[in-house]
Amino acid sequence: MTDEQRSYLMAYDINDDIRRSHVAKILQSHGERLQYSVFLLRIRPSKLLKVKASVEDEIDPDTDSILICDLGINDHAERSMLFLGKRSYRDTMIPTII
After folding, report:
1. GO terms for molecular function, please (predicted)?
2. pTM of the model
3. Is 13 annotated as a binding residue?
4. CB neighbours of residue 72 within 10 Å
């Protein structure tokens, strides 16, 4: 496995608000939110392993689903993505659960 930065598309389907919020914070700290539950991470494969481990610690594997797509080297991934409408998602207000 090389240590060159790659692009990964990560999406989640998580029913529980607390788990969903935790996963969103993990992914947001490592990438760009493209849609409500879809993130683009431009990281090294070694960092992806750490992100995956953090996400796995938060989810319930019986009910939650995480999709990880390796889009390849950053330059190639950027050229292969096509956006219709606005490119990224911006939260107007992120609910905080205490």
Report:
1. hydrolase activity; metal ion binding; RNA endonuclease activity
2. 0.80
3. yes
4. 14
The whole domain housing 64 covers 6-74
The conformation of residue 21, written as its DSSP 8-state character, comes to H
Residues 6 or more apart whose CB falls under 8 angstroms from that of 98 comprise none
Q: What are phi and psi of 77, to 5 degrees?
A: -65, -40
Per residue in 53-62, pLDDT (tens digit) is: 999 999 999 9
Side chain identity at residue 77, one-letter code: A
Q: Compute the distance between CA of residue 26 and CA of residue 94 in angstroms, rounded to an integer.
A: 14
What is the CATH classification number for the domain harbouring 24?
3.30.70.240
Instruction: State the total domains in the chain.
Output: 1
